[in-house]
Structures
1.
Amino acid sequence: MQQPHSETSPVLVIGATGRHAGTGATVVDRLLSRGRPVRAMVRTNDDRASELRRRGAAIVVADLHDRASLTAAVNGVSAIYFTYPIAAGVIPAAANLASVLRDVGSTAHLVVMSMAVSSLDSPSRLGQAQAVAEEVFIWAGLGPTVLRFGGCLFHENVLLLHGATIRENGVIANSFGEGPAPWISGDDAAELTVAHLLAPPPASAQISYPPPAEAITHAEVARIISAETGRPVRYEHISAATWRRELEVAGEADPASPINNAMAQHISTIGAALSKRTEPLFAPDPHALTVMLNRPPTPFADFVRRNLARFAASSVTVPT
């Protein structure tokens, strides 16, 4: 059994160079700003790793799908941030991590970034897999803190999924229809995660549902982008099958893109399910988030203002 940890023990951040919403990089920055040592786990010692090193993080090269590589990553850490891409493979990744943590006798506080649709009967296959991965951590006796964010959509999703069509022809097309979608900023989600990483671990596994900051339809999203950019942007409802195929084609055209077939099934299916709702899956609670964050949560309009160049017709696509 490892010895109890102190505030000088590093926090392991898995997914520190992730491109879905960039929560890992934000977690690194927020921990460092609080004076906590950070060990950032990366699969490749590339420019993104060098940037994390420049900001003060220690880098460890490891892969969740290579169990042997994880031992050095987890040794001596006080807490672990686990996030997995919106992609296939989370169950074996969780199994490898749980196996290594059990093997080394780790008492680190494991904090899991999850989603509201994490459920064994989720319409999303990724939602089902995420639920099983969380069960693996619980069965292993790791007592994880699982944060199933009620904001199913991060603000950053708009640029990832629709940035190209917004810039090229002012269109957002997907399967969400008129259903109100729950939103939260990726940065806000990361800050909430940091608060848990720095808190004492719970006595047993804890699953919570941090609320979304707001619930707005994609038509409202289009109107906000139009108002902030001064150029017309409209929303178009398409079937889940059509959107899924469009995403699959986009992912196949750019192997470096975080868009992939599993993500396409996940988001198009969730969109279709939410399109049938007249109320959001989880009610927004900006007051509760204000208490958690010690500041008001970031509204989508602010995200657009901070990223105007990335919505402009002449902008160059920037990875999220």
Note: The two ends are 39 Å apart (CA to CA).
2.
Amino acid sequence: MGKSATKKAKKSIYGVHPGVLMTQKWIAELKTKTGRSLDEWMKFIRKDGPPTEPARRDWLKQQHGLGTNSAWWLAERSVGKGEELGDADAYLQAAKKYVEDMFSGKKEHLRPIYGALLKLGSSMGEDVKACPCQTIVPLYRNHVFAQIKPTTQTRIDLGLALGDTKKTSRRLIDTGGFAKKDRITHRFEITSLNDIDGEVKRWLKTAYDRDA
């Protein structure tokens, strides 16, 4: 990560998503693995490829032997999407907008609840970082241990990574995530600031501690 990205990361309340570092590594290795750098792929796709993103994905896979993930990302990038996925500064700017969009319109009134959950999650330890995506805000320690999601116009779900934990409170809903091998296995339904009580804090701390 460059110096400017580091400075911005310190100023931002959000952290750089781990996917950004993975994408940067992928970009650095692209020439070796595929014979073309990112810039070379962009020039090639825009000059010789089909006109649409879906057609470019299929073309890259079928005609050039790229894997699904590489084909998707290059096709997206060729039409101006996903630049924030490979740049820390761009991601941090996008992260702020993701949250603004999530809590706009009829979900705007949920913003104070989101703020309280974000503050609570961050208080679990200095190693916590919140890395917004377009529909959720995951909280990371070593892995995702919780996520904040405005599921409906009246409710935020606080998802927790609790593995195969079975003895939980009545309020803590099993998502079926463990059986599906998802990180998030349980959730609290939060509809007001009063719902963020000692029970929520206790189980959030449990999820944080499990990811030590």
Note: Strands lie at 129-130, 137-140, 144-149, 156-160, 173-174, 186-190.
